[in-house]
Amino acid sequence: MVTPLDIVKKKRAEAINRIVGKGYLSTKRVYVGMATCEIAAGSKEVMEVFQNAAKQGLTDVYLSQKGCAGRCNLEPTVEVVEEGKIPVKYGKVTPEMAAKIIERHLKNGEVIKEWVIN
Fold it and tell me: For the whole model, what pTM was predicted?
């Protein structure tokens, strides 16, 4: 017989799996600007690079989109937020740059200073 406590335990385990599976507990977060103007500037292709990396095993990274930052001249933008560190914002990001951000910054901890915007 299934008790109410069994049902609650099952629902809790499912919720924890969803939270972990979506990366909500990751120590690194990547936000790609996906407002209409950023999409027009190429952010959809940039987002696809990060999504593909996640599908291919990039771990401990929560990927999400963000709205307009009011910096049209610097689009597409990507923000990397790491636990215990100052957030880093990259501007005029191309798909090629996104791949380098993954390799150099997310995997090796190197901020690519020449691409950083304030």
Answer: 0.83
The mean pLDDT value for 47-73 works out to: 91
Give the CA-trace dihedral at 52, 56, 61, 64, to 10 degrees: 20
d(CA 44, CA 37): 11
Place of tokens 């005029």: 92
Question: Spelled out in words, what is the top-level CATH class assigned to the domain 23-117?
Answer: alpha beta
Contacts (Cβ under 8 Å, ≥6 apart) of 117: 71, 74, 77, 89, 90, 91
Residue 93 has pLDDT above 80, yes or no: yes
- Nearest Cα to 84, choosing from 31, 27, 25, 30? 27
Lowest mean pLDDT among 18-32, 80-94, 104-118: 18-32
